[in-house]
Amino acid sequence: MKSDNVVWHQTAVTRPDRNKLHGHESVIIWFTGLSGAGKSTLANALEARLHELRCATIVLDGDNVRHGLCGDLSFSHEDREENIRRIGEMSKLFIDAGVIPLTAFISPFRSDRRRVRELVAKGDFVEIYVRCGLETCEQRDVKGMYKKARRGEIKEFTGISSPYEEPEDAEIIVDTDTHTIEECVDHMMNELVRLNVFHGPLEERIASSL
Amino acid sequence: MKSDNVVWHQTAVTRPDRNKLHGHESVIIWFTGLSGAGKSTLANALEARLHELRCATIVLDGDNVRHGLCGDLSFSHEDREENIRRIGEMSKLFIDAGVIPLTAFISPFRSDRRRVRELVAKGDFVEIYVRCGLETCEQRDVKGMYKKARRGEIKEFTGISSPYEEPEDAEIIVDTDTHTIEECVDHMMNELVRLNVFHGPLEERIASSL
Fold first, then answer.
1. Pairwise CA distance, residues B208 & B142, whole Å
2. Burial A126-153, CB ≥16 within 10 A → b, else e
3. CB atoms within 10 A of CB A66
4. Interval B97-152: pLDDT, tens
5. I need a surface site. Which of A66, A82, A131, B175 has the fewest CB within 10 A?
6. Minimum distance, in Å, between the CA of residue A168 and any CA atom of chain B
């Protein structure tokens, strides 16, 4: 027996609805920089600050993407490009969900980053250049990757045997060899306020805490 | 000048932190059923109800996935499998973000659905079988797809020229040819309460509204 009451209309929750719920705009926060510059650390530290303020966030990095969504991709040039494309598309879905994705990938090529920027509306893509001298990154060498690259055990390692193309139009720049994490996070928060990421009430709380 | 204060420790916001923020667990709500059964409509209607309750949600369907993240995939058997795999991995990232993804894809094969179920922990995957007779779906034929399939213009159309494997272990079943959208949504909300998706305060509000 079919019911005639079944009206198959479409109700839809929109991105502005979700942004209103969370009290902030959703933007892609895209960290780029050399291996060891501090992208992942800063993404996590900024997320912690945002979470304290009850913002909806997620960090996307090699740990949760490379074995999952991009688990079928190699490290060939073509697959690296596809890797960044998927991360971009996924980030776009997160901003549709009202969530702020913070991505931490070297993403050394301007063309790849530009492609992600062009996926979304103006203002939805916030590029953060995590600037740090190669010397410092190599000294940190947390995972011993630079040593391996210098010995030729890793091919096309960014900064050693493959170029890193510095951002020309990054919304935010942080210098991690001359500033502490806290200083970098404060700077990023100030810049996000300037970029109107937070709605009124939240912005006031941030202003009083910085 | 390098700062010695730079302690590159890792702070991390966890999924339980995010769930606490939102007041609910994050689970994948996976709608499956024939074309025209009402998956997308119900996903949107359930999302609207959840959003009213201030839950963090996102609907993933052909509209926002097929042109984006899965824009490189064809409709070959292999690519359909890859399509479902990516949607599964993406959904997993959403539950890590504390968001409830509601996916609306025919996903006709048990093996594909099982693979997604096995991606996440027990209880994180809630399969909803949107049950509706083929006859009714074909009568609705909102997009004229059944007509095309009957004329042989669409190959391997589920229910006509390709099988639909009914779920054997769906957590929730809704019958859309005998129930209204409202009735289906009420039933799904009751079931989500039973599955302990909502934290205490939210659960009380739901109980008083159902």
1. 36
2. bbbbbbbebebbbebbeeebbeebeeee
3. 14
4. 999 999 999 999 999 999 999 999 999 999 999 999 999 999 999 889 999 999 99
5. A66
6. 24
Considering only CA atoms, which of A137, A136, A128 is closest in space to residue A173?
A128
The pTM assigned to this predicted structure is 0.93
What are the beta bridge partners of residue B102? B29, B59
Q: What is the DSSP letter of B158?
A: B
B30 backbone dihedrals φ, ψ, rounded to 5°: -105, 105
- Per-residue model confidence as pLDDT tens digits over A144-186: 999 999 999 998 899 999 999 999 999 999 999 999 999 999 9
Which runs of E-coded beta strand occur in A12-168? 28-32, 57-61, 100-104, 125-131
For testing the chain B interface, which of A5, A7, A8 should be mutated: the one with the most B CBs within 10 Å?
Answer: A8
Could you confirm whether A74 is annotated as catalytic? no
CATH (residue range B16-209): 3.40.50.300
Q: Would you give the distance in Å from CA B116 to the centre of its chain? A: 11
b/e B112-130 (16+ beta carbons within 10 angstroms → b): bbeebbebbeeeebbbbbb
User: Which residues on chain B are in Cβ contact (under 8 Å) with A5?
Assistant: 180
Are B180 and A5 inside 8 Å of each other by CB? yes
Beta bridge partners of A127: A30
Evaluate whether the domain defined by A15-209 bears CATH number 3.40.50.300: yes
Report whether pLDDT(B37) > 90.
yes
Cβ within 8 Å of residue B118, ≥6 positions away: none
